[in-house]
Structure formats: C-alpha cells, structure tokens
Amino acid sequence: MKRMRLSSTGLWITRLAIAAACLIPFYWLLNISLSAPSAIYKMPADYWPRPPVIQNFRAVFETGQFPRNILNSFIVASLTTLLTLALASPAAYALARLKVRRKELIMAVFLGIAIFPAIGMIGPLYVAMARLSLIGRYPALVLPYTLMSLPLAVWILTHYFSTLPKSLEDAALVDGCTPAQAFLRVILPVSAPGLFTSAALIFIFAWNEFLFALIMTSTPESRTVPVALALFAGLHELPWGTIAAATIVSIAPVLLLVALFQRVAPPGSASTLHGAMKWAS
Amino acid sequence: MSRAAPTKRRRESRLAVWLLAPSLAFVALLGAFPVLSQFVLSFTHYNMKFADERGFAGLENFARLAADATFLQDFWQTIYFTVISVGFELAFGLAAALVLNRIGRGRAAMNTSIVLPWALPTVVAATMWSLILNDRMGLLNSVLVKLGAIDAPVVWLGPGLAMGSIILADVWKTTPFVAIILLAGLKSIPDQYYEAASLDGAGRWHQFRFVTVPLLRPFIAIALLFRTMDAFRVFDIVWVLTGGATKTETLSVYIYRMLFRYSDLGYGSAMTVALFLIVFLISLGLLKLLKASRETV
Amino acid sequence: MGKLTTLAGAGVVLSICFLVGCSTGDDGVTRMIFAAGQDPSGATAALIEEYNASHPDVEVTFQVMPANTDTQHDAYVTYLSAQESSIDLYSLDVIWTAEFARAGWIRPVPAGLFDEQEFLSGPLESVMYEGTIYAVPWFTDAGLLYYRSDLLEKAGLPVPETWSEFTRACTSVADPAGIEGFIWQGAKYEGLVCNFLEVLWGRGGDISAETLRDSPERAVRDVESTIDFIRELIETGISPASVLTYKEEESRRLFTEGQVLFLRNWPYVWSIAEDEESSVKGTIGIAPLPHAEGETGYSTIGGWNIAVSAYSRHPEEAFEFLAFITGERSLSLRAIEGGYLPTRKSSYGDPDVLAANPHYSGFFDVFQNTRNRPRTPHYPIASDIIQENVHRALTGEFDSHAAAESIVTEMAAILSR
Lengths: 281, 297, 417
What we know:
The complex is a heterotrimer of chains A (281), B (297) and C (417). Chain A has 281 residues and is mostly helical. Chain A has a single domain, classed as MetI-like (MetI-like fold).
C-alpha cells in the first residue's frame, strides 16, 4: 500500500466528506424517527430530538405485521441473489474464458433485457404469474427480479473473470482438473470480491423494488418492506415519523449484512490470487 | 498438445453451451413473452378502456411518436438528466472507490456507510429529499439560512432549480452503485503491477494513468453502461419530487402516464419500443467509444 | 465455493417448490376479496369480521392496499386488464367510475340495492356513468377553507365569503402578522385540478361538456381570467410562489405550524390541527370556499366508492356485502373510529357520529355546494391537460390566454369523444 500516497490528512478529509455526505440525511432520518410529530417540522429545525420519544417505533410494530414484511424481503432478496448468481456465474465464465460463438450477440441480449422498462413488463408478467397461480408467493417476485438483475451480474462477472490471469486454469488443467472443476475450484474462489459485489447490488435491488412487490403480492403477510412502508401513509396524511422509524428498522438488517460481507470478503483479490496460484502450480 | 487441441476445443465449446444454457433459457422463458408482447402491441391501436376499438395500426403509433412534441421535449430532458447525473456519479464514485480501496482501519464502517444511500428504498429516499428540499421547513434551507449563505428560503423544487434538485437526489442515491462496482475493479488489480510501475520510476499520476485507468476501464464501462440505462428510465424521484412539472418530465414518466394512467397500451408500447431502441443504440455507442479509447492508450 | 453452489442449488429447488400450488377445498363457503386502501383505525377490518361471523357461508377478505390513489390505480388496472377473478370488490376513487365502467371492468349496481335519496348528491353523481349506477358511495371528501379564528377576531373581521373580502383580510391581517395569507395545493398533480376548478366555479365559470360545446369563447375567457386571478394571488404575495410545489401535507404543515391565515385543504386536516401537538389548536375554524361577488362557492368532491368487479365469480354475494359495507351503521362506525366522512345524509344527524366528530355539522354545510370533476372515461388525460397548462401558466412558462385556449380545445375534443 505504498503506492500513490496522498498526504494522509487530505485522504482523511476526503473520507470524512464522503461519510458525511452519506450519513447526514440518515442522521436527519434518525432524528425524525425519534422526535414527536410536532417537532418534525419546526423551523429552524432541532438538530437532535428533545426529548427523544419512541412512539414512532411503537407505531411501526403496532400491527405486528412489520417483522414478517422484513422476513419476506429478506427471503425474496436472498433467493433472488442466489438464483441470479447461480445462473450468471457459469454463463459469465463461459463468456469470459471459453470459446463462444456470437459472444457479442449474447452479451447484447442480456443488455437488451436490462434496458426494457419494468413498467412495460409488469402487465405481461402479472398474467404469466397469475396463470401459474404464483401471486402472493415468493417466486412471483424472485423470478422477475432475477430476470432484471441477471444482466448486471453477467456483465460484472464476465469482466471480473476476464481480469484473472489465464495461467490459473492452465495450471489446474495440467494438474488434471476438468474445465468444470477448474471453474468451481480455482476461478470461483479467487473471484469472491466480484461475486460479493454482484451479490450486494442484486440483494439491495430486490430489497427495494416497489412496483412488482405491490402487484404480485396480496395479503399483508406476503408484502415486502417497500409496500409495507407505503401502507403507513394515509390518503392525504404522511406520518413521516412512523415512516422514518420503519425505514430505520428495515434498513438495519441490510446494513448488518453489508457489514458481515466485509468480514467474510477478503480485503482484496491480490492475496487470494497468490494463494490460488500457489495451489494451482 | 497440438494433437489434443481439436478435442479440447470441442470439449470446451460443449462446456460453454452447458454453462450458458440455463441463463439463456431463463431469459427466453421469462423475458421473451413480455418483451415480444410490447413489440406486437406497438403495431396496434389498443386502449384497455376501449378494448372494443382495438385494431391493427401498422406504423401509425410510430408516426404519431415522431410528431409528439412532449416525447421530444421529454427526450431532451432525459438526456440532460442522464448526462449530468451519470457524469457526477462516475466522478464521485471513482473518487470514493479510490479512497476506500486504500483504507486500512475502519474499512467495514466506511464501506457500510457509503452503501446507505443505495440501500434506502427509492420512494423513501425521494420523499426524504422532498422534505429536505422544502422551502419553509426543509433541512437544506434551514442550514443555509443559519450559515448566512442565503437570506430568504430558496424554492428548490420550483422553476429553474427543480431539475438540479432531482439530479442532486439521484447522485446522492446512486453514487454508491458506481463506487461498489469500481471498488471491485480496483480489487482485481494485483499489487505487483503497481510495484513494477514504481520500480520503473513511475510517479503517482503515471501509475494512475497507466496502471489503474486501463485495468479499471472494463469496470468503468459497466458502471457507465448500467447507470446510463437506469438514468434513462428514472421515474420515482421525478414523480415524487415534481410530478414532471417545470421541465423535469422524463421519458419514463411519460410512458407511465400512457401505460398506467391512460391505459393506452398501443401507443405506450410504441414509446417503450422507441425508448428501448434509443437506449440500445446509446449503449452500443458507449461500448464502441470505450473500445476505441482502449486502442489509443 | 462448493458450498455456494450447493446453496444456490438449494435456492433454485426451494423456489421451484413454491410452484406447487395449493388448492382450496370445496366446503360450500364463498370466498371473496375486497381490495381497498389502508384503514389504520381498524374499523373496516372489524366490520368485515362482523359480516363474516353473521354469514357462515361467506368469507370476505380485506386486501389492504396503500391508501395512495395512483398506487391503487396502477394495481387495479393491472388486475382488471388481466381479468383477475379472485378480487370481487374494489374501492374506486370518485374520478375513476367512468373509466372503469367504460372498460367493462365493473358491474352495474342492481336496482333497489340502495335508496338514492339517502345519499349526498355529489357522491351520488360520482357513481353514475351514462345514466347507470356502477358503484355505491363509500366516503366523501371536499375542499374546505380553514382559517385562523383568533387572528380574524383580533382584527375584528368576519370570516370572508367573497374573494374581495378574502384578499382584504390577507393584506390587513396576514402581512402585519408576518405569516402567509393563503396556502393551497399548487404542485402539478391531481390536487391542482381540484384547486383550480374550485376557483373557476366560484367565479361562475365551468368546463362542462355543454359549455365547451355551446360557448367555447366564454369558456376560454373564464379559464383565462381564473388563471390570471390565481397568478395575481401569487404576484401580490397573498400566496408565496412556493405554493406551486405544495401538495396536501406541505400546505397542511405550514398551517398547523401557525404560519398561515387561510388554508384550502380536505377535511382530514381538522383532527391534526385540533390535536394536542398542534400549535393552532382551538384557534381555527372552517368555512365554505370564497367566491366572486354574486356567485356561489363550490367544493370539489373527493372520496371513494365501492364497485363489484365484472370478473367476480360471486356477484350476488358481492353486492350483498356491498350493501352492508356501505350501510348506515357501517358508514357511521367508520366515521366514529376513523374519521371517514359518511356519504349518507342521515349520518350527519347521528348523535354518536357528532359526538365523536363535532365539526361534522360544519362540513355538512359545505357538502351542499359540491361539484364533481369532469366525468369521462378519458379523465386521466383531461386531468393532465388541466395540470400541464395551469401549472405552466402559473409558473410563467405559458401565456395564460394560450393555456386557456389549449385547455378548452383539448378538453372539448376529449369530452366529445
């Protein structure tokens, strides 16, 4: 880490600026979630809740439905992530490392799916899911979400796999591995950062999607977080304190997950790569 | 080796087929129906409320589109939004990725905090910004007045400023997306490259220019491509903040009006198809551009 | 990484398992679904429970939707265009009746299901399309004028009835007090249409199909002068320019923070303004909207109706439930528990309703002079024409005469279709 040493104060100032830009709106959301309704719109604003109240958080759990909604989001997002990676990583490996005819066309097909606006697809997909009597079940969300996140995953992983040195599989093949084994035992492990990046992006996309979640679910028990948040709003009234509290509650698991990823994910691929190369030779 | 080569190559391409088959089959099974139905509908007159008046339209929907002043205006507004917001997102995202890549202590906390804006549901983020930007009771004006930067509250969502405010909210929300992708790219660059460059006496700038940028290019391309496509389809932030008022309406707001509000599937699908073709061409153009620039380095 | 693939495989298998559908047994119970916006008071859910208990052969499920109008419209249009048969009843915004009826998505209400005389005239009009009744009024809403009674009293001014009295009160009371004169909903959305039509009607104008056909010049003149009048409210500082970015809640907050003399808003504001937390508690009043000299003020009708889906497999049972949920006792209970304004006249004489909502007597006066927005299957287009042109004219992007002309010609084309 000796390269490109900026003055370390400058670096820290940049880091603080980034953190501040991301966190200030959140601090404000937290402030609102802990404030009494009358304090939310004070002008000039209070910069911390005086006194802090928990009534908004109590309102979130009043119906008892919200934890279930968080669980639904968690299941839907996890299944989407797993299914997408299971489909995308073999495809990306083939596109990046193997001889494939019409490679550019295949990449373009994936891109085309990503370009199609979701609002144009919801009608036909609703009909399809209704025919399969999947409405209100997880696949009604997991399948469309996978369709929508597959292109990004394929593109990221294809490029990630391409960055790995060709000598990796060659060594494995010389050792007697089949190409499939080389992919599973050598390429996938060293690609952990690429996989985790795709996983994080897909998971959060699936966690936050609203339109499909609204239309493909029906009962309060089957709703996911974004729809549950919309259910807190009245016809005209916007109980912002409750919505802020619910947002904080629902975002906590996502952040926990991201923090966990940091622990599991290796700090950089370089060290893993060395290990893998040693193993492969 | 040369004797084994043909069978090896055949084995390799057979493996490739097996590896690609599941995802292509998935796309074909689930994606073909909705996508093709849009193409078919775009050649019909079909409003769900007037299903009895349904009929073949030929190219009439596209002719109407070519003369639609709203579509044209929204197109330019969408381009404006896309170019500026994606530009800022790439610049900030690259800066954030470079800074985060070299962090030691506090890495997890730092990485988690930059994911926050991206992890916030879009509708909540949009509503939050509408409150922050509110002229009388918003945080932004409150802080600016206190700092003495402005005397009177600024109407951030009013004429002239609204598009800028929408871009601000979008840049805040999606810069993490770019940063996360670029961070993965930076991690794929082995340290040896930098070590070799520094042994050759390359300075910081030269290392950045001749090691980081070329090796990061594919990831910049992905971030640019997917952000451009998403920015072109921006909907929620515009819908919540202005509803498309004061020259902020984007193409997907117009498509939403046509498909959902007016139930006009024929014309709405023609718009969707047109938007698809436009973005597809832009994407191919971007890819060409990135390829060309790679060759000149 | 072998683990990862196993896990992924398990995920795929798991999701395929969900594909195995579950079938409902044939036990002679008719199962119906009623889709409607969230009712946080729980009154609707309680009524449905009561209905199910007294009808052992019927089971109605409440499909709770977000209360937001656009959100419900998006969902219902998707369901109905897919000919979804599992949902039997829908709650419909008053502006949707013509649209859903023309599409063939909802069934005409059988004669004799309810007595028309018992309902308020505005909501009753909203369930009709081409002479047929397609829904039953459920709860209503209408634009009201909220005012600060303390400030008017201190200045010795009566509650203004005409626009000239109104603007005079703004300059003589609001300006010296350092607060805003008049706040309303001017953002480009449905609320702007309501606000605009109220001012137009209060000045003797209208954009009904007949007026647009028979005297388009007069319509252009009225629309233009209304836009100019509203623009003047902003230019003279009676309303701030930022009002053109406000929806219900932005305007309501300023009022309940005590920064506004007059507010145009829906009845929901009352209970928030009279809450312990409000800074204007006990110092506000409600009145009909102002009008021009010699004219009458009208409020735009809002609120929701309930209709039976054309694809329902149990229309008879659905209409029976519809009669119950829009019955006198149901409407009163929702008024008492949730503050939903009843569409039946008798509820406004119900002592229990009035005990829970003493302010309803004031609302009842306003409900005598209400009007519906144009009733046409093309309503969303009509609404966008008004929103687009009025908003652009008010922000100065369009000239008011040009805006008025396009409103009148485009609306005429739509209403005559």
